[in-house]
Specification:
By secondary structure, the chain is of the alpha+beta class. It has one domain (20-151): Jelly Rolls (Sandwich), CATH 2.60.120. Helix content is 25%, strand content 42%. The chain contains 3 helices and 11 strands; from the N terminus they run αβββαββββββββα. It has helices at 2-19, 60-63, 154-174, and strands spanning 21-31, 46-50, 54-56, 64-72, 77-83, 91-92, 97-101, 107-110, 117-121, 125-133, 140-152. The strands form 2 sheets. Strands 2, 3, 5, 6, 7, 8 and 10 form a 7-stranded antiparallel sheet that branches. Helix 1 packs antiparallel against helix 3. The radius of gyration is 22 Å and the shape is elongated. The protein starts with a helix and ends with a helix.
Length: 175
Amino acid sequence: MPLIIGSVILVVTIFAGFIGFSGEGSESMDVPSCSTGISGLDICDKSAMLEQNIPIPNAVNGIIVANFVIQWDSPDAWIGIVDASDADQCLNSGEGYLLCDTEDLTFFEGGPDSSGEIDWTLSGGNYRFVAGNSVDGVTETTEITYNYDIILTSSIAWFLAIVGIGLVARGLVKS
């Protein structure tokens, strides 16, 4: 039995701890104009925040390393990641998002100066995604591509590998 359990632990450790998992995808998204059409009312300095928090437990920091790269092809649009507590400074739009003054937000990654790309290494906390634009004409569509790499931290991977090797060795000695 130790031989089987140790072998399973080693296989899982090789894939999750030394090779990791990765993936990619893409989405099309309409970027509305920030001009409302009402004289003197321009919302280019505003941003839309998702209403839902993205809670990430602090224990994640010691177990996995997850890196996300998000890119988009519209130079006028931007995406950012902020602390969920920044939502207190925003107004509810009633349409599934909050309307925020961009200058009041503190960005962990991305934001108005992101130049079409976010490279974010996941860490514990409560986050929200924010989007905005500086398109002063008509609505346009942007293509958002993303990829991710997830791997166990090296200390966890080596610990599991040693446990697996120990169980395999014990199983071989007993048989």
